[in-house]
Write a structure and sequence with these properties.
7 helices, 2 domains, 4-stranded antiparallel beta sheet, protease, DD-CPase-like, alpha+beta
């Protein structure tokens, strides 16, 4: 085994950061984002998330029916959307469907709103049905590392109304674990803190996932000598350690 030291400022970095009104974004370098689709150059995601989203849509031949509507947003853009929606729709609607500036997943580059192709697409609430190609995308997206982030039965935990169009990249093993266990991101660190979890991906590769609490300004984490590893902060109180077993 080898030991790595992770500093406290890494709590707010990684694909598993929780971002909501109770867990605002921490200072961090801006994400390296690229367009999801050349036809929609203004809609960008963190580069790995963008590549995997594109691959998922292509695997379904869904490019003509699935449209990226909104991806990464700057702090200024999120503030503008909040202010405009508050003015036009009122406080109750805005609180349901727009994250408060500084508390939006869109500012991470890991979240995307998708819509059904149509002459007019509602920017805030795009239509993204549960049937047809859109339902098949939901099922397939899990193995590409995406979850449907805001579901109706989890509103009391997420604080956001059901958004069938909003998908969040977390990584393949985590999307599979959350989906199998019926968890939202607000519950995931607590679930992992109970005991390390192991899953086998579609390609047959085994993955172990565990939670390590932040111990102060520096946290020591043990990793195997071999195999691919990832350490992501949860933007709360610890780190999620993912180890792909050497094969």
């Amino acid at each position: 085994m080898r030991t790595v030291t992770i500093t406290r400022d890494r709590l707010g970095r990684g694909p598993l950061i929780l971002v909501n009104r109770s867990h605002p974004l921490r200072p961090a370098p801006p994400p390296e984002c690229v367009p999801v689709d050349s036809r929609c150059p203004a809609v960008a995601l963190e580069k790995q998330a963008a590549a995997l989203l594109s691959a998922c849509i292509q695997s379904l031949n869904g490019g003509a029916q699935i449209v990226p509507v909104s991806g990464w947003r700057s702090a200024e853009e999120q503030r503008r959307i909040w202010d405009e929606t508050l003015h036009q729709e009122g406080e109750a609607f805005t609180a349901q469907y727009v994250a408060y500036p500084g508390c939006s997943e869109h500012q991470t580059g890991l979240a995307v709103d998708l819509g059904r192709a149509a002459p007019h697409i509602d920017f805030l609430r795009p239509d993204f049905p549960y049937h047809g190609i859109w339902g098949r995308f939901r099922a397939a997206s899990v193995k590409y590392g995406f979850i449907e982030r805001y579901q109706a039965h989890q509103t009391h935990l997420t604080g956001i109304a059901a958004e069938p169009w909003h998908f969040r990249y977390v990584g393949a093993p985590h999307a599979a674990l959350m989906t199998e266990q019926g968890l939202c991101l607000e519950e995931y660190s607590g679930f992992l803190a109970q005991t390390p979890r192991r899953c086998v991906l579609d390609n047959g590769r085994a993955v172990e996932v565990r939670y390590v609490p932040c111990m102060g300004q520096e946290t020591e984490i043990s990793l195997p000598e071999e195999g691919c590893c990832q350490i992501s902060g949860d933007n709360a109180s610890g780190f999620v350690v993912t180890v792909w077993e050497a094969g």
